[in-house]
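Support request from a user on the community tier.

User writes: "When I paste my structure tokens into the form, the page sometimes reloads and wipes my input. The last time it worked, I copied everything first. Here is what I submitted, just in case something in the input itself triggers the reload:"
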């Protein structure tokens, strides 16, 4: 299983050293962008993403938890994202937002909150490069994994195989050494934040996840 490190709960004092070190050990960096409207929290913006871009060559998997993602695609593309994922529950036209991301030469992803079913996004699956299943309510790091996400990644895996779709299957929220075995067979990558960032020995935890 590939690992996308969420830096939402990373201690930003001495960020350069910590970020570079962790980034060198994972496959993707997951950037959680919050607008205090789609979710009840604020994180950081494209300025910080652009700064961090100078510290690693690892692909950036940018997760927009924004009500109007279509207004910020250009900025997050210019900041150096390889994937931009937005929520189908946002106030935007899904197909034109996918198109806009691709016009900016970035791979396009869609994400679903815990109450949204896979059936609701089936019509978009031929057009996306990533599907991100939320296994917590978006907004905060360090929450408990919701097992209802397991059936969703399983279903997305079946649909991908049956139809020859190209999207990567990603899962986000509460991923750790205990919860990851339940999804590892169905996903291409998994986001992990607090399990890695808050550990005394992050390397050991990255290895545990990578082995799955
Ligand atoms: C939640 C974010 C997640 C979160 C993951 O809104 O989208 O990426 O930071 O953090 P952990 O791994 O702590 O659940
Ligand atoms: Zn995220």
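"...and here is what came back when it finally went through:"
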């Amino acid at each position: 299983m590939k690992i996308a490190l969420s830096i939402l709960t990373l201690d930003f004092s001495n960020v350069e050293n910590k970020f570079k070190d962790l980034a060198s050990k994972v496959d993707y960096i997951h950037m959680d962008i919050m607008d205090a409207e789609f979710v009840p929290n604020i994180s950081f913006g494209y300025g910080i993403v652009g700064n961090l871009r100078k510290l690693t060559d690892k692909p950036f998997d940018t997760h927009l938890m924004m009500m109007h993602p279509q207004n910020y695609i250009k900025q997050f593309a210019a900041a150096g994202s390889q994937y931009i994922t937005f929520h189908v529950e946002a106030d935007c036209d899904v197909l034109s937002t996918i198109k806009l991301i691709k016009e900016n030469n970035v791979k396009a992803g869609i994400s679903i909150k815990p109450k949204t079913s896979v059936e609701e996004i089936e019509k978009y699956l031929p057009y996306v490069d990533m599907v991100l299943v939320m296994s917590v309510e978006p907004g905060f790091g360090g929450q408990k994994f919701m097992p209802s996400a397991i059936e969703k990644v399983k279903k997305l895996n079946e649909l991908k195989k049956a139809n020859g779709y190209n999207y990567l299957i990603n899962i986000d929220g509460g991923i750790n050494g205990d919860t990851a075995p339940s999804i590892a067979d169905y996903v291409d990558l998994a986001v992990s934040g607090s399990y890695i960032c808050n550990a005394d020995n992050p390397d050991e935890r990255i290895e545990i996840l990578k082995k799955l």
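Agent notes: The reload is a front-end session timeout and is unrelated to the input. The pocket of D-xylitol-5-phosphate (ligand 1) is lined by residues 6, 8-9, 30, 32, 63, 136, 138-143, 172-175, 191-195 (CB under 6 Å). The chain has seven helices and eight strands. Escalated to web team.
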